Amino acid sequence: MARCNHRRYVCNTLLWFFSRERYGTMRENVINLKVVLANGDVVKTGSRARKSAAGYDLTRLVIGSEGTLGVITEVTLKLQKIPQHSMVAMCNFPTIKDAADVAIATMLSGIQVSRVELLDEVQIKAINFANGKNLPEAPTLMFEFIGTEAYSREQALIVQRIASEHRGSDFVFTEDPETKKELWKLIRKEALWAGFAMAPNHEAMATNDVCVPLSNLAELISRTKELLDTSPLICPIVAHAGDGNFHTIILFDPNNDEHWREAERLNHFMVSTALTMAGTCTGEHGVGTGKMKYLEKELGIEALMTMKRITTALDPNNIMNPGKLIPPHVCF
What we know:
single chain, alpha+beta, six-stranded antiparallel sheet, three-stranded antiparallel sheet, disordered N terminus, 13 helices
């Protein structure tokens, strides 16, 4: 059972940092919640059974509600077995579309990868600059394979073949624990801070986390990349390519009005384009206030009115994180 602020934040949004391709997001890994409602009632949303058909699925209702339905005080999570063996592989590509195509082909092939991360050449350059590394500055895919030693190696060889069919080069892999740890630290945990090293005294618009059906990822990320390359701002791309989700870390000077407008323009393009591809304005970080303006186009007014009825029933005095998630013009 987890009782830390970080887990409560992750439940209130849909963040899930690692191995989502194999284990799913936070929503799939929470068994039960204890939630304090606006009237003070304490609700247990489920049991510890593997499955249940008893009543409404309150656990899934609360997850992703961004604090508008109640305060989460306890979280019961699934435990996953530590894999017997793991392997990390990297491969470079001439274009970001080639990299995205390989991520799509890998996931559609049925290979049980646990992570697929995509970084553009700007993000790799930032990592090199911030950490004194010499990684090839090209669009890059990182994979993690888990299972038995033989299974992991077999899957890596299959992905290597898929990559070679899409102009992939420099396919390398490691099984050394310290090397794997260092690679994931550089690629995922320090990606944002590496960007700041390239643009001191800048801020990051890093919550643009659109997500589209996997089949549309290559087109969306390619069109976004074309726009970013013409922008005066530094905009690294980091994608959870195995589930169609990607982030653009838009670095801008908060004291420069033109930078603000440009950051907003880039973000609006990403979201608007994702919505035309049956995607969502946020795959992980949530709506807050910044993305409310996109919800009606994504979900429709009827869905928003239903959400409003739920929040009004549970929080008639509007004290639970007011002004968030549901646009203010929605009423019933």
